[in-house]
TrEMBL record:
It comes from Amycolatopsis viridis. This is Uncharacterized protein YaaN involved in tellurite resistance. Residues 40-102 form a coiled coil. Keywords: Coiled coil.
Amino acid sequence: MTEEQNETRRLAIKALQIAREARDDAAAARVLATAASKDVGDLKAQLQAHTKVLNALRETQLEHGSRLGRVENRLGRVENRLGRVENRLDRVEDHLERMETEMRNGFAMMAGGMSRIAELLEGRES
């Protein structure tokens, strides 16, 4: 074999090794690409699930906000009614105080009148 044939043979063997390595690298790249594609699919599914949860949470918050608004309105109406009841109770208290004063004055007048009657009756007996 000549020097040129040896060089050609050596280059052919080297080319075959490079081709085998390239084929092996391509196979490994396909395996990695398949795994990466699966990982991306899993992440996409998780992201969609998180998005659904966040949307459901938003809906719940909107519902709670609406309900809270209605509760605040009802509470405002109850507070108004309570204020009116307090005003009525104040008027009742004022009326009772006036009646108590009138009764005390009436009893005082009756006591004075009864004293006078007792004096008159005692004066007749003597």
